[in-house]
Automatic annotation (TrEMBL), chain A:
Localization of this protein: Cell membrane
Record family assignment: Belongs to the MreD family.
GO biological process, one term: regulation of cell shape
Protein name: Rod shape-determining protein MreD
InterPro entries on file: Cell_shape_determin_MreD_prd (IPR017225), Cell_shape_determining_MreD (IPR007227)
Bilayer topology annotation: Multi-pass membrane protein
Transmembrane segments: 52-79, 100-121, 127-153
Region forming the signal peptide: none
Record key words, sorted: Cell membrane, Cell shape, Membrane, Transmembrane, Transmembrane helix
GO CC annotations on file: plasma membrane
Source organism: Roseburia amylophila
Pfam family, one: MreD
Length: 172, 285
């Protein structure tokens, strides 16, 4: 229960910051993608199932407020959470390389999918341009932010796990 | 640790069923043109006040920062300006005459008069699309304030976009610079129709959007001409300024022309918008 509330709060805060504050702080009209950091990090920290649900609900939020149809972003974020969850066995909290790599990979493929489904299908073929001016800048900005955000999420998760362990020990 | 294997559903089934759910939702909302429905109301009630609060705090902070920055500049400027005052007093007399003329002309141009027959309501922009691909934003008025889907949104002196979805106290607006936006436009001088479509690439590079299909056989359309919404558009009210022609070229078919438009609205710093409460009568329903 405590975990659910905390995670919900993290998603809400990130969504709000992403749609307001970071839009104001955008460089060259590019703003970072906080929610993908949240989905990816909970995915590889907690496993596939949690990744799915966290991804689904973060995506649904974007769908409701900014999407043109319900379900598109939910699907993308859900798969981001799920695929990152597959790397749970390789994840160690002390290692920063794998998380950064996974977050970068998630953001990259997320944007490529958006380009593929929402732009390529409308005959916007200039992938080189979109790559250089949208996808890569967003990737860099997101990675910069995720250095901070990832550690916040990591610490919150470790604290939650400690509390859970303690209360589980009480019952045994 | 106790394990309860009979309550565990395998992850792949969860993934599959959620995927099916998403695709179904996409299909339903795309084919039936439904928005979130009840989801809109619930999510709106929770998030909208928070977005408003953050924006309010953000504006307050940036105002304060601006004030501090300005103070230094102002001190320096003050010295310079004192010297200029005398010089300018001389020029003032001549300028007064011109000012009078300018005022008159501005009054003629005032767009508020042009739109004054429409009922309007003001709204604040409370959130922008979190991604970098589309230009969709939310405003703080919704169906409870009389806003409906397909209402036109303007700001100051031009067209901003159109309402694509409403919740009880918020509405989604797609701006004309959005890559998937299409508007029927008309050159004000010659009444020639064209199609205006938003373009992410040209908007990022030169702050312009594209138009195409302009039939201008007599080469009358020039750079700087005003483009307004056309009377043949089925969703946009007639005669709202979209922007000014910034470049024009002949298509390879030698029949039509296409080019770019500089939008009349500053989309980067959009904070307040006006929603026109009259919808275009199309006779289709």
């Amino acid at each position: 229960m405590r975990r659910k509330i905390t995670v919900t709060l993290i998603i809400i805060v990130c969504f709000l910051l992403q749609s307001t504050l970071f839009k104001a702080l955008s460089f060259a009209s590019i703003s970072p993608n906080l929610l993908i950091v949240v989905c990816a990090s909970f995915g590889f920290m907690r496993g596939r199932k949690e990744g799915i649900f966290i991804g689904f609900f973060s995506g649904l939020l974007i769908d409701i407020f900014f999407g043109e149809m319900i379900g598109f972003y939910a699907l993308l974020y859900m798969y981001a959470g799920f695929l990152n969850g597959c790397f749970k066995k390789m994840f160690y909290p002390d290692d920063i390389k794998l998380p950064m790599l996974l977050i970068a990979g998630s953001d990259l493929s997320y944007n490529l999918f958006i380009y593929f489904f929402r732009f390529l299908f409308r005959k916007q073929f200039a992938i080189g341009y979109y790559m250089l001016h949208i996808i890569i800048p967003e990737l860099v900005y997101t990675l910069l932010i995720s250095v901070v955000l990832y550690f916040i999420i990591l610490k919150i998760n470790q604290r939650l796990e400690r509390i859970e362990k303690r209360s589980a020990a009480k019952f045994v | 640790m106790r394990r309860r294997p009979k309550h565990q559903i395998p992850t792949k089934y969860i993934l599959l069923s959620m995927t099916a759910l998403c695709i179904l939702a996409m299909y339903v909302s795309f084919s039936l043109n439904l928005g979130g429905g009840p989801l809109n109301s619930i999510a709106g009630a929770i998030f909208e006040p928070m977005q408003k609060g953050i924006n309010y705090a953000g504006t307050w902070l940036s105002d304060k920062a601006d004030n501090l920055k300005n103070l230094n500049d102002v001190m320096e400027e003050n010295e310079q300006l004192k010297g200029q005052v005398e010089e300018l007093t001389n020029e003032l007399n001549t300028l007064k005459l011109e000012q009078y003329e300018l005022d008159n002309l501005r009054e003629l141009l005032a767009l508020d008069q042009q739109y004054s027959d429409y009922k309007k309501t003001g709204a604040n922009v409370i959130g922008k699309d979190p991604g970098n691909w589309f230009s969709i934003f939310t405003i703080d008025k919704g169906s409870k304030d009389g806003i409906e889907v397909d209402m036109n949104v303007i700001a100051g002196n031009g067209l901003v976009g159109i309402v694509i979805d409403v919740g009880p106290h918020y509405a989604k607006v797609r701006s004309v610079i959005d890559d998937s936006a299409k508007v029927y436009g008309m050159i004000l001088n010659t009444s020639d129709n064209c199609i205006i479509n938003g373009n992410l690439q040209s908007m990022n590079e030169d702050q312009v959007i594209e138009f195409s299909g302009l039939n201008d056989s007599e080469n009358k359309v020039q750079i700087g001409d005003q483009i307004v919404t056309s009377n043949v558009s089925d969703k946009y009210l007639q005669g709202i300024l979209v922007g000014y022609v910034s470049s024009i070229s002949e298509d390879s078919n030698h029949l039509t022309k296409s080019g770019t438009i500089t939008p009349a609205v500053d989309f980067e710093h959009l904070q307040q918008v006006l929603v026109i409460l009259d919808k275009k009568e199309t006779g289709s329903d």
